[in-house]
Amino acid sequence: MTRVAFYLLAARDEQARRLFACRLARKVSRMGHHVHIHTPDAGSTDEMDRLLWTFEDIAFLPHGTDVNDPDSPVTVHDQAAPADRCDVLINLAPEVPEYFGRFERVADLVGGDATARARGRERYRFFKERGYPLEHHEIDP
């Protein structure tokens, strides 16, 4: 069964959440996992694509927006999901992606503003009502 971790960020701005997604994707991919980042829309996909190249001054995180590229350790998209081979889903969207059950783990990143927290509670309730194992982590700046 998919394990779900909620990361509750103190920061209220979207950029902080995206940068945390980059750091988390880097950490998880370095552990040998394939990662998919689900974004809310095409503009967010483009922004994540850019950030994954530039969030570190001395390195970049290999990734792609083609979810069917077998050589991409990290994929980013707002609609499509990898058919297989990914075991960690990082969710940046306000909804639970329909395909979340394909993954061993889901990392749901919740921003610090009131709207983001309310949507995060809705997603938490969704998983809890269905009996998924849940954990949460408070992330300070």
Structure explained in plain terms:
This protein is an alpha/beta fold. Helix content is 33%, strand content 22%. The chain has 3 helices and 6 strands, in the order βαβαβββαβ. The protein has helices at 14-30, 42-54, 114-129, and strands at 3-9, 35-38, 74-77, 88-91, 105-110, 134-139. It has a 6-stranded parallel sheet with strand order 3-2-4-5-1-6, sandwiched between helices. β2, α2 (42-54) and β3 (74-77) form a beta-alpha-beta unit. It starts with a strand and ends with a strand. The mean pLDDT is 94.
Give a concise summary.
The protein is 33% helix and 22% strand.
What's the overall geometry?
Answer: globular
- Taking pLDDT < 50 over at least 5 consecutive residues as the criterion, the unreliable ranges are none
Amount of beta strand: 15-25%
CATH superfamily placement: DNA polymerase III subunit chi
Multimerization status: single chain
The topology string of helices and strands comes to: EHEHEEEHE
Number of strands: 6
Tell me the helix content. Answer: 25-40%
Mean pLDDT: 94
In total, the number of domains comes to 1
Pfam families: DNA_pol3_chi (PF04364)
EC number: 2.7.7.7
Keywords: Nucleotidyltransferase, Transferase
Organism: Thioalkalivibrio nitratireducens (strain DSM 14787 / UNIQEM 213 / ALEN2)
